[in-house]
Amino acid sequence: MSGAIDVRDTTGLAAALEAVLFTLNRPVTVLELQDILQSPLPDVEAAASALGESLAGRGLFLQRHQDQLQLVTDPAQADVVRRVLRPEYPSRLSPAAYETLAIIAYRQPLTRARIEEIRGVNCEAVLESLEEKGLIQETGRLETPGTPRLFGTTMKFLQILGLSSLDELPPPPQSGSTSS
Amino acid sequence: MPEVTTELERDPVYVVRTAAFDGPIELLLTLAQRAEVDLKSIALASLTDDYLRAIDQERPPLDRLAAFLVIGARLVQLKAAGLMPDAMGAEAEEDLQAWEDAIKGRLEEYKRFKELAESLMRRHASGRFTFAGLLEPEVIPQARVQVSLDALASAFQQVLDRLPAADQVTFELEHVSLADKLDHLRQMLAHQPQLNFSAVFQHARTRLEAVVTFLALLELIRIGEARVAQPSAFAEITVHAQERKEN
Q1: Is B75 in contact with B39 (CB distance < 8 Å)?
Q2: Containing H/E element for B242?
Q3: Could you tell me which chain B residue has the CA closest to the CA of A35?
Q4: Annotation: CATH topology of A95-168
Q5: Contact B127 A158 (CB under 8 A)
Q6: How far apart are CA A7 and CA B216, in angstroms?
Q7: Measured between alpha carbons, how far is B70 from B76 in angstroms, rounded to an integer?
């Protein structure tokens, strides 16, 4: 087991992944990881789930937001970490902000018009504030006249909720008579 | 408003006198509501004209005028509904039902999101955040990222793409010499030993100027006065001044 990159088995690749995520210390896309680990996508994915499992009960935590992975501290250790960090996370958001976040989290990507249709009020200011806080971002544009911006959540959204991925959100609302 | 009607019957708001109906207007409304009088046979327009003439002579108090308006509006509504063919009435009712369902669906959807928002809020308030390390990404070793010619070429393509499209360019003879650009680039690097790749081209106004600047940069790299690096994969390429090694 000399050249770490040559290691083809999942355990070895998971260790390499852990080392890379620790060093980069930012959200890293699986595309980048394929290049860095010189491994095809299925192997990177397998390594990611192996790493996530092996971190259970440890101080670190593997977070996944869509195609991005990041190594962060475990939500259970938030109190002790807070003692050494002075995090700038917003401690509280407005009810309108939580509503808008919920709609975006479950229906992403979607336009401001669609959000406003559900909430029934103008959402310009609340979207601006959420974007400024780094909790949502533009993920693309809709191919319709005016090419409106599409919004999605960010890795930071998972971080303020201590979720390992979007799949951990409470069960989504059944799309009733109106579907997007 | 049956109680209003009975109250007013003792002192009618207006007494209608037409061939089809003769009596207080309140009674006309009551009977029309019970379908005991056919509103189609009563010209509401001429009834209104008669009323306007009547109040011209003797001005009734405001509440009486308001009462007439309410009763009159209801009569017009009833007559309009009666004039509508039955089929259309059913369709309109269906439309109304669909509209009501849509509103109800939307309210339910909103209610569900409101509940989810509350669960997000509770989760956030629990303070179980995750934190990234404090290590600054700048210290990432450059070892694995050597700028390939391809990366350099595609970065240059991005610079070209930023320039105005061909149909917006006015043609003029320009003299951009490689020597001038070499001097300019040397001055920039002397002033600021580390530059972003895009900053090198920020003064280029035309494709030709950008191309010559790029050639000048390649020349500086070739003769060892500059080198290019990329701090991490997909990051912006940086240009660094370098002491020329004299042979």
Answers
A1: yes
A2: none
A3: B233
A4: Arc Repressor Mutant, subunit A (1.10.10)
A5: no
A6: 43
A7: 10
| Cα distances (angstroms) measured from residue B203 to each of B199, B210, B236 | 8, 9, 18
Contact A32 B129 (CB under 8 A): no
Helix (H, G, I), strand (E, B), or coil: what is residue B64? helix
Give the start-to-end residue ranges of the domains of chain A.
4-84, 95-168
Contacts of A114 (CB under 8 A, 6+ apart): A107, A180
- Which residues have CB under 8 Å from B235's CB, separation 6+? none
Q: Is A82 in contact with A73 (CB distance < 8 Å)?
A: no
Nearest partner of A105 among A113, A95, A115, judged by Cα: A115
Nearest residue in chain A measured CA to CA from B99: A177
Contact predicate A13/A7, CB 8 Å:
yes
Verify whether the Cβ–Cβ distance A98 to B140 is below 8 Å: no
Q: How many CA atoms lie within 13 A of B160 on its CB side?
A: 12
Residue A159 DSSP SS3:
helix
Conformational region of residue A18, where left means phi above 0, alpha means psi within -120 to 50, and beta covers everything else: alpha
The number of angstroms, rounded, from the C-alpha of A75 to the middle of its chain's C-alpha atoms is 14
Tokens standing for residue B124 = 């956030």
User: Would the pTM of this model clear 0.80, i.e. be above it?
Assistant: no
Interface residue ranges in chain B relative to chain A, Cβ cutoff 8 Å: 101-102, 104-106, 108-110, 112-114, 116-121, 123-135, 137, 140, 144, 232-234
State the fold for domain A4-84.
Arc Repressor Mutant, subunit A (1.10.10)
pLDDT in tens, B221-247: 888 888 888 877 777 888 888 877 554
Per-residue pLDDT of chain A (180 residues; tens, 9 = 90+): 444 444 458 999 999 999 999 988 889 999 999 999 999 999 999 999 999 999 999 999 999 999 999 999 999 998 888 887 765 555 789 999 999 999 999 999 999 999 998 888 889 999 999 999 899 999 999 988 888 999 999 999 999 999 999 999 988 766 543 433
By DSSP bridging, strand B226-229 and strand B22-24 are: unpaired
φ, ψ for residue B22, nearest 5 deg: -135, 110
Same fold, A4-84 and A95-168: yes
Query: Smallest Cβ distance to B108: which of A102, A120, A176?
Result: A176
Question: For residues A18 and A37, what is the distance between their CA atoms, to the nearest angstrom?
Answer: 11
